[in-house]
């Protein structure tokens, strides 16, 4: 006997009519701010009650799909591999949402004894009560239960129940401090605080588990790149995220009419268009960080020398720009442009050999800018000279404006700062660079406006200050 479907269809019809009426009458647009706030709050209450019913339903599906013979599972009867797939198909949610519903159900749905059929207490009965009252939805359930559940093996059940009671009171707006009902984010903070207070040694087991799970693996090279996979320790991930944030945070610009008139002809400052995705930008930041680390002199040496990327290419291919180069440790051939990039900021070792492979001459040409030149160029340029880039000098490479192979000297009048990305793909992005009496100038590519003139480029505070004072 179906005890629920008819009632659900009645509610669905009412809700459908309500949505259509609200859209047709533009009632949300016509509401005052106070009325709109009340309406959104009521919609949230309704959503949490719907989630409560959904959590219990998913919990029942899980119960019918976990014990006994697989052929007897509800998922098998309905042609699905697992509960997640079945919930996806029935509710049209993505796998993450389906998984979250199952986790919430495990925390708040009462167990049923497999022998007696007796209904047992839920793992978190206070949270379940709040769920049935519409106080917390899936987000709130997981925010409270997961931190306390993680520490439950190491704390007394009575202490966990007390913590649960306090945090649920915060959710209801009846906490010790009388604060309004807390959102899921605040509830997680409270639950984590209680978990840490009750489980003083909880960090050590988690750290031991993290140490065992840590790892980083480079996959097999493919024509499109080398896949990377693994798990970072939390502090390592935080350090890497900090590096990403430092380089990718939106640059703050000030509405300064004097700064806007920095060019002598009064034209606006150029800004480079960056079409990279955030994932691609993070890749390039990591590439720059590896270059900085390798050249820092702080890493262990290999054969008495700093870790060095070795790229080999024939003189003919390097001169023509066609053909292939080979990077040590990389199974796939690389482009000649990569060889040019590495050679621009590194040392060229020319090896002359006969056709049979015998080496008959080795010529080393050191064309690396020394630390004194680098400091001077950094003082002059401030950072990457491509307008709008913002990468600081310490993370930049020094580019030979006139290639060393073409007679360009390793001199401050021929070196400019470029970030890893703009140095690596300078020949593709359209920006041109030249030196004018020792001052770097850039010309915008074709996609930028119509005024394609050579203009000085710098983010050096000293030079910008002097330019502003001249205006």
Automatic annotation (TrEMBL):
Record-given protein name: HNH nuclease domain-containing protein
Domain of life: Bacteria
HNH nuclease domain segment(s): 372-424
Coiled coil spans: none
Pfam families: DUF222, HNH_2
Source organism (scientific name): Microbacterium aurum
Stored SMART domains: HNHc
């Amino acid at each position: 006997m179906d005890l629920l479907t008819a009632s659900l269809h009645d509610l669905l019809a009412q809700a459908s009519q309500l949505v259509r009426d609200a859209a047709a009458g533009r009632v949300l647009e016509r509401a005052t701010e106070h009325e709109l706030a009340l309406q959104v709050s009521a919609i949230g209450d309704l959503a949490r009650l719907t989630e409560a019913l959904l959590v219990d339903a998913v919990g029942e599906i899980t119960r019918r799909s976990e014990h006994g013979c697989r052929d007897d599972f509800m998922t098998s009867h309905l042609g699905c591999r697992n509960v997640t797939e079945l919930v996806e198909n029935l509710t049209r949610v993505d796998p993450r949402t389906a998984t979250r519903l199952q986790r919430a159900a495990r925390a708040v749905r009462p167990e049923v004894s497999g022998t007696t059929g007796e209904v047992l207490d839920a793992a978190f009965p206070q949270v379940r009560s709040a769920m049935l009252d519409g106080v917390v939805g899936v987000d709130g359930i997981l925010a409270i239960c997961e931190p306390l559940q993680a520490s439950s093996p190491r704390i007394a059940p009575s202490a966990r129940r007390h913590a649960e009671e306090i945090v649920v009171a915060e959710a209801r707006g009846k906490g010790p401090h009388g604060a309004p009902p807390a959102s899921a984010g605040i509830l997680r903070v409270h639950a984590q605080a209680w978990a840490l207070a009750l489980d003083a040694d909880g960090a050590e087991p988690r750290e031991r588990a993290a140490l065992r799970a840590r790892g980083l693996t480079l996959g097999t090279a493919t024509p499109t790149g080398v896949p990377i996979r693994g798990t970072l320790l939390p502090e390592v991930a935080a350090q890497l995220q900090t590096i990403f944030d430092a380089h990718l945070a939106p640059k703050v610009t000030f509405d300064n009419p004097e700064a806007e008139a920095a060019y002598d002809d009064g034209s606006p400052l150029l800004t480079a268009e960056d079409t990279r995705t955030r994932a691609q930008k993070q890749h390039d930041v990591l590439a720059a960080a590896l270059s900085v680390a390798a050249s820092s002199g702080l890493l262990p040496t290999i054969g008495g020398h700093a870790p060095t990327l070795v790229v080999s290419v024939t003189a003919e291919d390097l001169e023509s720009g066609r053909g292939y180069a080979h990077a040590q440790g990389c199974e796939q051939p690389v482009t000649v442009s990569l060889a040019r990039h590495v050679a621009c900021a590194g040392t060229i070792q020319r090896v002359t050999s006969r056709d049979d492979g015998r080496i008959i001459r080795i010529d080393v040409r050191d064309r690396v800018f020394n630390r004194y030149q680098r400091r001077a160029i950094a003082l002059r340029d401030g950072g990457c000279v491509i307008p709008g880039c913002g990468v600081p000098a310490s993370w930049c490479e020094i580019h030979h404006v006139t290639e060393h192979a073409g007679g360009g000297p390793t001199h401050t009048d021929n070196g400019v700062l470029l970030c890893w990305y703009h140095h690596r793909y300078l020949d593709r992005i359209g920006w041109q660079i030249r030196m004018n009496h020792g001052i770097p100038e850039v010309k915008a590519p074709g996609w930028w406006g119509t005024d394609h003139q050579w203009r000085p480029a710098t983010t050096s505070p000293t030079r910008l200050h002097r330019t502003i004072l001249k205006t």
